Amino acid sequence: MSDGGTADFVPSAALDAAIARTAELLRDARSTVALTGAGLSVESGIPPFRGPGGLWTKYGEPPLDGYQRFLRDPAAAWRERLRPTEGWARGLRDTLDAARPNAAHRALVELERRGLLACTITQNIDDLHRQAGSRALLEIHGNHRWLRCVECHRRFEPEHVAVDPERLPPRCPACDGVVKGDTVQFGEPIPPAVLRACYDAVERADCMLLIGTSGTVYPAAEFPFEVLRRGGTVIEINPYESELTGMVPLSLRGPAGAVMERLLHHVGALADPRRASA
Ligand code: APR
What we know:
Blueprint: H1 13-28, E1 32-36, H2 55-59, H3 66-72, H4 74-82, H5 87-98, H6 103-113, E2 119-122, H7 128-132, E3 137-139, E4 147-149, E5 155-156, E6 179-181, H8 192-204, E7 207-211, H9 223-229, E8 233-237, E9 250-252, H10 256-271
Parallel strand pairs: 1-2, 1-7, 2-3, 7-8, 8-9
Antiparallel strand pairs: 4-5, 4-6
Helix pairs in contact: 1-10, 3-4, 6-10
The structure holds adenosine-5-diphosphoribose.
């Protein structure tokens, strides 16, 4: 499994010029936020949800009342979490456990390290931004490894909550509330703290990198509009057109890993012109 097909991806002259332009936009921006989706982890071997090879395309969208079902019988939901009976859920869990960050995850860490990226908002639950080393990270849909209390909304790494298969659901160590997986289910409100932090980051941003998302799920899909509404710019990175392509000033058509690696090259060239010809 190549981690981004970077080796055999050669951008056209027009695309490379657009990537170089993006490097300038990042350099000149006051505050840049990246909004990432499932497409960013495709090169880590995790399928997207929609489009070609998408999980929902193959298995159909899950019920939109997943959260209400959890609240009705949290013990049953936990038994399913501990021993998934649905084939795709078992497959996805194994794929998530085996996946590793790719060149796009690492490039975002490098942009953050260079002070060119204020924050990464991810819709992905796969933990790969965290594994790559992203620090200013907002997981708006949660993290598949973590747990969260439905009462006080505290989040926990799995080792901090006692899960006894004989006594389900597990309880919150802080408030004794019911604990669920941290992943935000369909029908579940986004936890208030992370939603507030996302809006704060977006309201400060005058530039957004929109990477590997179809732009179909709200509230995340609203964020690019918010940046544009306030006069900022949005650059999309996606090998295919998305719901948002028509309204963004710049859309880079290529796989995230390869395009982000090329973007780092141009950022480096701006910092040190002697490297421009490399
Ligand atoms: N690099 C970049 N983008 C890619 C790549 C790639 N290698 N491969 C596919 N894509 C793009 C697709 O063209 C598509 O536009 O990634 C996008 C993936 O879209 P979705 O599968 O809809 O994923 P996402 O936008 O993250 O979904 C949002 O929906 O099901 C819920 O909670 C789930 O967080 C998810 C949310």
